[in-house]
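user: Please supply your own:

assistant:
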Amino acid sequence: MGLTLLPWGDSKLNLSFSFRYSVNPIGLALLLSAGVALAPGAARAQANDMFPSKAAAEQRAKQLKCSGAFAMGKEWMPCQNFDVYEKAVSKEK
């Protein structure tokens, strides 16, 4: 993709842009399947259970009666993995 700008005079300034996206296919699949598989209330819970630190996710795991935390992109979620998290959230009322 290129863009040519014409500043003052006849000289041209050519700017080139390159976009690269790096997508983790497993993370993307988890996010997409989570949106389809979870009930709306559980999907809201999932959005609220994304934490910037592992320690914060582990604290939430104690509330959910599970243990550990797992990385979801650059953020952390409570429990050992997504399946355990899903079950813990479904039991929470």
Notes: The mean pLDDT is 75. The chain has four helices and four strands.
